[in-house]
Structure formats: C-alpha cells, structure tokens
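Hi there,

I know you've been waiting on this one. I reran it after we fixed the sequence typo, so this is the corrected version. Both the input and the resulting structure follow.
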Amino acid sequence: MAFTTEELLNLGLTEEQAKEVFALHGKDLNASKSALETITQERDSLKSQLQNTEAQLETLKADANTSAEQKEALDKLQAEYDKYKADAAAELAQIQKVNAITLALKDTTAHNPSTLMKFIDVDAIELDENGKPKLDDIITGLKESDPYLFKADEDGTPNPNIVPPGNPAANGANNTDPFQAIMDSYGK
C-alpha cells in the first residue's frame, strides 16, 4: 500500500502524526524484508542441496558397477524423491496463494486484515493471470454479513450505527434512548 505525506495530511493528520505513520510502516516493512531474506537464503540453500543430490543420484545410476539391488533401491529412492518434489511444489504453491491473499486483504478497509483470513476458504480462491487473488465477491459478502470487520464508509458514518450521530436536542424533544426504542418496538 503506497501512500504519501500529502495524502496523510489531507486525511487530517498533523505532520508529526504522518511521520509516526511512516515510522510504524517502516518497522513493518523491515520485519517483512528480514523474513523474506531469511526465507530466500533457506530456499537457495535447499536448491543447491537438491541439485547436488540429483547429480549424485544420476552418477550412481550411471555407474556400471552398481548391482541390480542397488539400481532397484536407487529407482525406489528416485520415486520417493519425485513424490517429495511434487509435494514440495504443491506446498509452495499453497503458501504463495495464502501470501497473495494476505497481501490483497491488506488493501481492504478491514480493521484487522489478518482476521479476515479466518472467513476465507483458501482452496476456493482462484488467482488471476498476474497471481492476484479474486476476492471481490468474498469481500463484498463479508461487508454485508459482518460489517463490523470493516472501517467506516467514505461518508463518515460509523459501521454499524449503534447510536444516532450528533448531540441530543436541548429542549428534550426526540431524545429517545435507542435501546428503549428497540424494546418498545417488541412490545407492540
């Protein structure tokens, strides 16, 4: 989510508050970058181990002195390796999908985007050709069924509207207690 100081000032924040927002956002970005670097290093290490293992396996298969039992064991090992590789690829695709959904949820007006993940069936989400999840229908449904998860609309009205906005009238007219009004509606 990219934003500028001018946009924050237009929202009514002071320059000091805008600096604090950028400081908090910077901390979040640094934590994400650190985690990404760690994961990237682990991935690269595992890739090199995988390439070495594949080379050793091919060398053993090609060795003329390898017995039939050893070749059978190598074939079994190759089958297990292929299954492991396919499982790892599927797990990686699932993790990438979850991460794409999590990033897309951060662009919503939700109070806590990570909470929305509990309402989403990851397997049912499809990714478009750019790798972005198609979440519009789900977000719209959640806004209708659970509006408390999202921030106020652009018109500034709170969501949900628990009490009428504004101050009560000075003369006491139309000063009804919202709870009492609901209770009275059940009594009729």
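Quick highlight: Helices lie at 5-10, 15-62, 68-106, 113-116, 136-145, 178-187.

Best,
R. S.
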